[in-house]
Amino acid sequence: MTAHHDKNNNNKKQWQLATKVIHAGSGHDDPHGALASPLYQTSTFKFADADQGSARFAGEEAGYIYSRLGNPTTHELETRVAELEGYEAAAAAATGMGAIAACTMVFLRAGDHIVVSDAIYGCSFALFSELFERFGVHADFVDLNDTDALQQSLQDNTRLVFLETPANPHLKLVDIAAVSQVIAGRDIRLIVDNTFMTPLLQQPKQQGADLVVHSATKFLNGHGDVVAGIVCGSAEDIALIKGTTLKDMGATISPHDAWLILRGLKTLDVRMQRHCENAEKVADFLVQHPGVRKVYYPGLADHPHHHLIGTQMKHAGAVIALELEGDEAQARYFLNQLQMIPLAVSLGDAETLIQHPASMTHSPYTPEARQKAGITDTLVRIAVGLEAADDIIADLQQALTASQQRWQQTA
Ligand code: 4LM
């Protein structure tokens, strides 16, 4: 370890997040002094001799074995994101769903019960409501802002509360600290999906989350060229996840994808600033447009949980949902009119993306569950990107004008 590294390590706790996205975890000792993190694109690692191999497998000697179990590039990513979220450790996964499955199943066995926020990403809903049920774990989907409903949903066998805030797709917020207070003193872990915020806008550990999970596919990577996930928590919980659900079910990240996310993370702070500025401008535009019936964006003063901005979260983020005047066909017509903005699921990319949750990201919900969660058939979700805000707005404007004309003709 060089003097330079020692100095960095002594100061790193005081670093601001804008510095940590670049420097945290980058203590690699490349023999050539490479500035960028080396990519250890290897499946396996050579042992010096048989004793070393068996000692590593027995956990008696630190060191790498095989990339499903750990890899230096992956480790660098895990260290950086853990520091950003304020946890001791992290485990990277092949996808966000891989991370969610690994960090929930590890704490569950047949007969257990979990409580989940009523609006979450469609595949998380499918995992908890369908797959878990097949293995004897029952999930109740609850409005977690209703403290009485949360209290009543808790059972002796409840092991986890899982929530997303802001919720995909309509940006409902959950007061994490309030949930944490209700479950305090029980043997229940609180897991927060922080994908929509990133640690730069919200650090759920400060509100009492035991684990924080991300789809790293989104803002963390930021360039739309990777699918990945990551979960942060105590060293003990992360060691358990790495040693069981990740090791034996195998949703481990590719070192190349970890390397791309490390690169993407360096610009997270500047990207989030631009994402947020653009989203505010787009929300302001949508609110005043006569063809738009409702805009869901926590940054707007009429959002029911607007008060959480400035306390739980630093900013409303860059995802907006809206309802157009008209029916579902009208929403589809509008999507088809866009010229620059791609019709695509995902979020957090340089490109602004737009999609129809009821038939796309939230199609795994039953129609009844969608209705209960407030995910209407006319809802459209915009993940605001990094383009010039005027160009995003101009594309939305021309598509809204065209669809308004259609609606006036049909109505
Ligand atoms: C989408 N979302 O919404 P992977 N958690 C949240 C998410 O939004 C997602 C995942 C986990 C979308 C994907 C098509 C809050 C995904 C799952 O896709 O497995 O990395 O993350 O558009």
Total number of strands: 11
SSE pattern: HHHHEHEHEHEHEEEHHHHEEHEHEH
Q: What is the global morphology? A: globular
Report the β-strand fraction as a percent range: 5-15%
In terms of quaternary structure, the protein is single chain
As a whole number of angstroms, the C-alpha radius of gyration is: 22 Å
Major pleated sheet: 7 strands, mixed
Provide mean pLDDT, rounded. 95
What is the rounded distance between the termini? Answer: 72 Å
Your description of this structure?
There is one protein chain. This protein has 411 residues and is α/β, with parallel strands linked by helices. 39% of the residues lie in helices and 14% in strands. It has a seven-stranded mixed sheet, with helices on both faces. Helix 6 links the parallel strand 2 and strand 3 (138-142). Helix 4 runs parallel beside helix 11 (255-265). Ligand 4LM binds next to helix 5 and helix 6.
Key words describing this protein structure:
single chain; 411 residues; alpha/beta; seven-stranded mixed sheet; four-stranded antiparallel sheet; 39% helix; globular; disordered N terminus; binds ligand 4LM
Task: Summarize this structure briefly.
The chain contains 15 helices and 11 strands. It is α/β, with parallel strands linked by helices and 411 residues long. Strands 1-7-6-5-4-2-3 form a 7-stranded mixed sheet, with helices on both faces. Strands 8-9-11-10 form a 4-stranded antiparallel sheet.
Which helices and strands, and how do they pair?
Elements: H1 3-11, H2 17-23, H3 50-57, H4 72-85, E1 89-93, H5 96-105, E2 113-117, H6 122-134, E3 138-142, H7 147-153, E4 158-164, H8 176-183, E5 189-193, E6 211-215, E7 229-233, H9 235-243, H10 245-249, H11 255-265, H12 268-287, E8 292-296, E9 319-324, H13 328-337, E10 353-355, H14 367-372, E11 379-383, H15 389-410
Helix pairs in contact: 2-4, 4-11, 13-15
Bound molecules: ligand 4LM.
Residues 95-97, 121, 123-124, 164, 168, 193, 195, 215, 217, 227, 229, 345-347, 361 line the site of ligand 4LM.
